[in-house]
Amino acid sequence: VRTWRPRVPQGLKSPPEPWGWPLLGHMLMLGKNPHVVLSQLSQRYGDVLQIRIGCTPVLVLSGLDTVRQALVRQGDDFKGRPDLYSFTLITNGQSMTFNPDSGPVWAARRRLAQNALKSFSTASDPASSSSCYLEEHVNKEAKYLLGKFQELMSGPGRFDPYRYIVVSVANVICAICFGRRYD
């Protein structure tokens, strides 16, 4: 199988890259703990390396100085996110988080999200002990979550808190968006 690789401009060399499967790239290698695998790869290949997610090349940066160089000193060169087919498929191209574009649509969505967070960060009811709507919802959900954990700990056996934490985070978002929490 012949692989397709983008051409590197003359005089430059591409970052080191571990061996990967055709069409799949390094997805199988990353497994359930990609942060651990990427850390091991950076120890072997250095602070700058390339992997492929499917056929899409992805630059991986490790190390504080390298990341600072990329994000602070060369921010315009590294802004945006990879245009991965899976992100587009899952979000139907309408996600602010996984949108590779940093153009006017992305800027409008970002402004909308910032304004929403700002409005929920303003003072709520003066009689409330919370300083803002967001804090009020987080406090209520934290009390509910602690009560649920106490109930589960008093019962027999063990329990996995992960599911309850995920539901609590979703309930904070639902309370802000819809004005109520869900069980």
Sum up the structure in keywords:
single chain, 183 residues, mainly alpha, 3 domains, two-stranded antiparallel ribbon, 51% helix, 7% strand, extended, monooxygenase, oxidoreductase activity, acting on paired donors, with incorporation or reduction of molecular oxygen, reduced flavin or flavoprotein as one donor, and incorporation of one atom of oxygen, Cyt_P450, microsome
List the helices and strands and how they pair.
Elements: H1 27-30, H2 34-45, E1 48-53, E2 56-61, H3 64-73, H4 75-78, H5 85-91, H6 104-120, H7 133-154, H8 162-178
Antiparallel strand pairs: 1-2
Helix pairs in contact: 7-8
Family: Belongs to the cytochrome P450 family.
InterPro entries: Cyt_P450, Cyt_P450_E_grp-I, Cyt_P450_sf
Enzyme class: oxidoreductase
What is the helix/strand order? HHEEHHHHHH
**Major sheet characteristics:** 2 strands, antiparallel
Report the sheet-strand fraction: 5-15%
Q: Tally the helices.
A: 8
Parts with pLDDT < 50 across at least 5 consecutive residues: none
Q: For the terminal residues, how far apart are their CA atoms?
A: 52 Å
Description:
This protein is mainly alpha-helical and 183 residues long. A hairpin with a 2-residue loop joins strand 1 and strand 2. Helix content is 51%, strand content 7%. It has eight helices and two strands. The mean pLDDT is 81. It has a two-stranded antiparallel sheet. The N and C termini lie far apart (52 Å). It has three domains: 66 residues, no CATH class; 40 residues, no CATH class; 56 residues, no CATH class. The longest helix is centred in the last third of the chain and has 22 residues. The chain is extended and about 65 Å long. Pfam families: p450. Its EC number is 1.14.14.1. Its cofactor is heme.
